[in-house]
Amino acid sequence: MKQQRTLVLSSVAILATLFLILPLAVLLVEVPWRNFVNILGRTESIEALKVSFVSASFSAVIAAVFSIPLAWKLSRTKSPLVRSFRPLILSPIILPPTVAGFALLNIYGRTGLIGELLRDLAGISLPYTSAAVVVAGAFVSMPFVVLVLLAALDQLPADMEEAASLDGATAWQTFWHIGLPYAANSIAIGVALAWTRALGEFGATLTFAGSLPGVTRTVPMQVYLDLETGPPGAFVLSAITLIIAIALFYLIRIPWRSPNRKAPYPSESPQIP
Amino acid sequence: MSAGRDLIEAIVRNKSVDQKRTAWKYGFQRGIDRYTLRANRIQRSGRDNAAVGPTGSLTCSREESNQNRHRSIIAVTIRNVIALMMAALAIAGCTSPVPSQTITVLAAASMTNVLPDIVLSYERGHPGTRVRVSYAGSSTLAAQVRTGIGADVLITASRETMNAAGTGVRQFRVFARNSIVLASATSKVSSIADLNRESVIWIRCDDAVPCGQAAMTALKSEGITSQPASLDADVNAVMGRLRSGEADAGVVYRTSLIGQDQLRAIPFSHPTYVDLCIAQVTSSSLPDEAQDFINYVIGSADILIAHGFEVVKT
Predict the structure, then answer these.
(1) Beta carbons within 10 angstroms of residue B155's beta carbon
(2) What global pTM score does this model have?
(3) Helices (H) and strands (E) in chain A — how many of each?
(4) How confident is the model at residue A40 (pLDDT cuts 50, 70, 90)?
């Protein structure tokens, strides 16, 4: 009986792995490797990669900078009102990307609430700019960072802060010296997730920022167009994105902090999956 | 049934809402338990009548315990399946009967306003046949046909995109012509030359689609050198942005502006045309019906003209 059960689990696990890995493997096999550098050197490909990588980096940094204090406050708070905000803050995760883009356009567009304000006061128009790509990327990736950080910070026991405040630490010192080191791993995971999520964002960017080569056309949009006009370009861009994403997820597994360094109590901080 | 009596007892005795909720579940669970115990009692009665009491034996062997568990699982499963079947029947009863055949048409985005009218009159004249249309940029559709999508008819807005479908379609016919205009959404744009001004945000289709290529040639002939704010995948996307007020002007088809008064049409000095082509998809499973629909579209000159197309006399 025990052996039969293990067979079922193993076969399902193998099927799941194949389901996930086969498309990627076949994609890498069918890439025209001989013409790789030529196709990569096309203006559209280079521009798309530049727009995507630069805006995704900005999005990830902005998402991280704003998410860390948010997650800290959400996990430390005792007021039920603030606790009830959690599902609201995480809701952009379940929002379909095109809907998210539409929502952003509605508020930051030319006729939107904040859009009009920006235009009248500062003369800034957000849609159709590279900044819009960053905003869209930050909007869709921030909930992921918050989620990952909350998972870690919820495990930090409350007595730690009590002990710290008893020893005379201010709220900021508690955050900086206890909370941040404890969540360091999770912050790394969150930023990586945010970066890849912003890199792959298509619907929200298209609706909010438009699609202009070199300014707002990201890699997913370029792949979408290449599917119709020139599949080799789509293959090359997909291969590059895939390789970088895989490399990133292997990179964050490396223990960047030396093992001898004393970890904050409790000694087990959340590990990278 | 004694499960109901248990339920009522539990409800009457317990006062708080939580306890009532538990009591309901408790009553249900008791009902299930009673079924399993009764089933076991009937099975055991064959062997040893005297040892069985009204609630079954108080202790049982491991097999009996497993059997009890399996039977309760079966009881719950049967209950769930019956509930699901009833729900499914209810839902199925609400849907309309499936038509005898459905023709799938892939149409260029510029046909969005005119094709529903043609389809309506076609379906009225051919009861039992439904026509399902999917709109996208012509190059997208050509790529879909090339990679083997299941469709019957392809309509594109240029000969190049129809040729790009390659062996995926049979011999095509040109049945109408469309022209490019500038659609102005705000007062900032009142002539073509206004597009060159710094503060104007204007958009057009991408070069890959017929609308964009025609726009490119038309704009070049007018001497417009400024960049658009976005190159969209089809004319409907451009219209969407214009209607939402996100752009001052956009280069669209003349037919896109028929029947709406929000946008003003500004014609180009040298009209630029695109040829609308229709063809049957090679892999179609309904070749005769597809050809019938194609002939109908080609013959619908009045509907096409009413929507702003120019009909080619062949």
Answers:
(1) 25
(2) 0.70
(3) 15, 0
(4) confident
